[in-house]
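Lecture notes, structural biology module. Today: joint structure prediction for complexes of two components.
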Amino acid sequence: DAGVIQSPRHEVTEMGQEVTLRCKPISGHNSLFWYRQTMMRGLELLIYFNNNVPIDDSGMPEDRFSAKMPNASFSTLKIQPSEPRDSAVYFCASSPRTSGTYIHEQYFGPGTRLTVT
Amino acid sequence: AQKITQTQPGMFVQEKEAVTLDCTYDTSDPSYGLFWYKQPSSGEMIFLIYQGSYDQQNATEGRYSLNFQKARKSANLVISASQLGDSAMYFCAMREGGTSGSRLTFGEGTQLTVNP
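The predicted structure, tokenised, for the full assembly:
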């Protein structure tokens, strides 16, 4: 079975450029999460969706960040304009949050390593 | 206040021995879940084990077991018969809110090194 798919795996861009990260969750999962991992701040939740609807975006650092989930099999995280402090590994995760279960374990993608110079 | 605390930045263990990674949590919610994830040097996050706040027995998954002490608010991960491939960063995480909450809060992690 295919796991969570993220692209690109690595992205190097210059300050001020737009960056778009992509995620395909596991088929049948109806919750999707975007995380950012840095040495200084650890693993932070940026935003999560249930059934394609954003539920909690309180972790999105500022207006330069936006996330969309146009359908159950695709999500994007966009940074515009990018800054060097955005350099991090960005993870997408999905969860089989269905009625009758409450474990809500999350399965992570391989991550996108973003470097903004 | 930290919701998840992992007090061991680094741990070392000899191959084939058991090791315990500590995790304490803080919540006033009676319904919550505790998770452990492994992050090897390749970077992916791997789900290992789950313990629900109402579960009567400690969770086990192969060589992984969770020592759940509810009164102490601790959820330590025990890895038995350590293998070289167990060398990785280990994260404890908590979900609050029962069936309505999916948000996970992660600890800072413990770097485990298994020595041959």
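Point to remember: Chain B touches chain A through 23 residues (CB under 8 Å).
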